[in-house]
C-alpha cells in the first residue's frame, strides 16, 4: 500500500514538474486565446506580423541577456545601447563623419555603417565585461553605470534631437538603410530572419560547443569552474560582448523601421529582455537556461504588450503588469527548483 502511495506521489510530482516546465508555453496559449476575444483584429495577418516583429526585438535582447544571466551576471545597459546604436547609425547617414581638422565629411555606405555600429555595441559590451572582471565590480552596478553612459552619449550625439528621415542620399552612396526594418525575405520581415538565425546559432553554441559548456559552468559554480581550468574572465567578457552585439542589432532594426533615430529609443527595454529570459526558464542565480525558452518568453512579452495596446490598456498599467509578470516568473522558478530538489531527494531515498 505504501509503495502504491509512493508511486502515486511520484506521478503527481512528475506531472507538476512537466506543467512547470511548460508554463511559459501554456501562458502563451492562454494569452492568444484571451486577446483573440478581447482585442479587436488581434488575429489579423497585419497584427500577427507586427507582433512577430516586436517579438524579434525582445528575443534578440533576451538572447544576449540569457547568456549573461546563465553566466551569473546581469546587463542593465542593453536598452541604452539600443538607443545609442540607433543614434550612431542615424548620425552617420544624415551627417556623416566630420573630420574638422581636414575640413571634410566622410559618408559611409549602409553596410559599413551597420558594421561600425555593431562593433561599437560589442565594444560597449566589452567595457562592461572588463569593468566586471578586472575591477570585481558587481554586474548590477557596472551595467547600471554603463546604462547611463550609453544613454548620455546617445543624447550628446544630437543634443537630444531626433535624426529624422534617415534614408540617405543617392549622391552620397548611403541609401538603403530602411530595408533592414522594412524588407522581407520569403514574405517574412528581415528582423524575424535575424532572430531565427541568431537564435539557432546561439542555441548551438550553448549546447554543442566548449564555450557553451563553460558559460553554464561559470554560472553554476564560478570557483569550481576556475579550479577546473576554465578561463572565467574570458567567458564573462564574451557573454557581455554578445549582449552588446544583440542590443546594437536591435537599435539598427528599430531605427530602420522608423526611418528615424531617437536618443530615448529602447528606454526600459532591459526589463523586457530580463522578462523574456526569466519567463523562458533562465534562473536568476545562473547556470540554468535555454535559448528556446527565451524565444517563447519573448513571444509572451510581445503578445502581452501588443494585446494590451490593442485593448487600450494604459501604458502605466502595462508597466505594472509587466513588473508583476517578472516577479511571478522568479517565484515560479524558485518553486520549480525546490520541487526538483524534493523530487530528486525522493528518488534517491527510494
Automatic annotation (TrEMBL):
Signal peptide: none annotated. GO terms for molecular function: transmembrane transporter activity. Keywords: Cell inner membrane, Cell membrane, Membrane, Transmembrane, Transmembrane helix, Transport. It is a multi-pass membrane protein. The keyword Signal does not apply. It comes from the Bacteria. It is found in: Cell membrane. Pfam families: BPD_transp_2 (PF02653). The chain crosses the membrane at residues 20-43, 55-74, 80-97, 104-131, 185-206, 237-261, 273-304, 316-332. Its main location: membrane. GO terms for cellular component: plasma membrane. PANTHER family: ABC TRANSPORTER PERMEASE PROTEIN YPHD-RELATED, ABC TRANSPORTER PERMEASE PROTEIN YPHD-RELATED-RELATED. This is Ribose transport system permease protein RbsC. It comes from Clostridium magnum DSM 2767. The gene is rbsC_4.
